[in-house]
C-alpha cells in the first residue's frame, strides 16, 4: 500500500468462481482461496499459474476462511462445521458435520484466546438470530439466541475478545448499535445438553445528530472506545450522502465524518490501523491513530483554543487550495492521518501532533504560505531539524510539498539546491511528496530526477516513463552543461574528446584484450557484433548516467508497458542501442558485472531490453535503421546461447576438477595442463 505497487495477480479458469475471500497464511506465507465452493487452492508469491497450484477438493461447501497470525487458518463450512487447515489437509474428503439446521450464516469472525483459536459466527432463521462460539482445537461448541428487537433486525456484526469475553457489536436497522457480551465458557466433561441461552443486549450508540440520521451499512471496532461506521447520512429535505464516520462509544458522540461523493461498495475493512474502502473506482486507504479517550476530546472542549476548520480530531477537508496537511490538536483522540489511493496518483497528507501552546506543522506551513523566500526556507530548515523522530518523514514530506506548491504558484521560484539537499540527505519516497518529480520534469531538473529515480522505491510507472522520454529527447550539447552524477558510467563508457576516441577498459587478472591477443593469438569470433564504424557508447556520458537511473527504478511490467508503447520510434531505437551496448559490456567480463557506483546489473539490462522489444518490436522490424541493430542483437544472443550450451556439456568435468583441487595439497607454484576428452 505504501509503495502503491501491485505485487501479483492470479486468475482462475473461465467458468470458475472465487466463492470466498482469499487469505494469507501468516506462518507459511502462502495464499489460500476457495473456488466453486469446494475446491481449495494454496500457492505462493513465486507461483505464476494458479491452475498448477496445490488443489484439494473438499466434501462440503466452504463459507469463509479466517487466518490468525499465531493460530493458523481456520475454515468455516456453510453447515457450521469448523476445521483448522492442518487437520483439513490431512484428509480433504473427511466428513464435515452440520451444526446448523435450516439456518443461514450472516457473519463470522476469528480471534485468539490465549493459545486457542476461537471462531464466532451468527446465523438467521425465520427472523431469529443465533450466535455460535467454537474452539476447533478443543471440539467445543456453544449456541446462543440473540434477544429480539422490536421492529428492527441486525444488518451487520463485528466483535473483539477481552478478558474471556466476546464483545459482539450489532448494527441494527433502527440506526443503532447494540452490544452483546458472550462468555467464553470452560467446557466440562459432565456438561449436559441444555436449552440454548438467550443473550441480552444493551444500547451502545444511536446514529442521530442534529436531525440527520446515519444509515450504516458496515461497522468496525477501532479500540474499546471508538468505532467506525460506513453508511449514508440522511437529513431532512436533502439527498442522502455516503460518508465514513468515527464515533466515541464511551461518551456516545460523533467525533468526525467525511463525505464520500463518488460512492462506495458499502464495505469497510480495518487492518493494522488502516481503513480500506472502495471509493468510486479506487481502493482508498486511510490511516488512523487511536489515543486514550477523554470527555474534553469527545465534545471538542479542549483547554487550548481551536483554529477555524480544524476539529479536535481531523480536518477532513483540504486547507484552502493547498492540500498540504491534515492537522489535529488533541493528543487524546482518534486521528485520521492521510488518504492515498491505488490509482497511482493521489496526494498523501501528513499528520503532526500539536502540543498545547505550539503550532502544528500544518498551521505553520499555512502561516508561511506567503512568506518571503529566505524566511520560508530558513523556517523550513529549522522545522526539519527540530521534528521528532517518529514524525520526521511526515514533516519532511510536508516541507517538500510546501516548496513544490510554491513552485506551482510562482513559476519563477525554484529552490533547486534546497530540494536536492533534502532528497539526498533524507529518507523520502514518492508518496510523501508526489508533486516533486512532476515539478522537476517541468523545470527540466535532470539531476534531481536522477536522484529521485535512484532513491525513491515507489515511483509510478507513468513518471518513470516521463523521465525516460525527457532524458532521451534532451540534446547531448545541453546535457554537457548540466551537473549530473556520472559515477555509474565513468568506469566503462567509451567517451569521445576532441574528435579522438578514448575507450576505458577494465583489466582483469593482469590481462587486457590486446595482451590476450598478442600472447595467445586469439582471434575475434565471427559472431562478435559491431556497431558499424565504431563500438563506442551511442549516447554521451551524462545521458548514459541518467538512463542508468531509469534502469534502477522499480516498476511493474503490466503498468509500464502501455506507457512505453508511446515512446517515439527513434528514441526507442536509441535506448535499445544503449541497452545493447551495456549488454555487450557486461558479457565481456567473467562476472558479468559493470564497474562503478550504482551501475546497472545484467538482469536489469535484460529486463528492459525485453520490455522495450515487447513494446516496439513491430515498429522496429519495419524500420530500416533498426534492422542492423536487431540482427546484431540476434547474433550476439545466439553466440552466447551456443557458448553456454558448450559450458553445460563440460559442467560435470569442471565440477570433478574442482573436487580434485580441494583434495590436492599444493604448497608450491605449479602449472598443470589437463586434457578434457
Automatic annotation (TrEMBL):
Residues 394-675 form the Nucleolar protein 11 C-terminal domain. GO terms for biological process: maturation of SSU-rRNA. It is found in: Nucleus, Nucleolus. Keywords: Activator, Nucleus, rRNA processing, Transcription, Transcription regulation. Residues 1-289 form the Nucleolar protein 11 N-terminal domain. One of its GO terms (cellular component) is nucleolus. Pfam families: Nol11_C, NOL11_N. GO terms for molecular function: RNA binding. The keyword rRNA processing applies. It comes from the Eukaryota. This is NOL11 protein. It comes from Cinclus mexicanus.
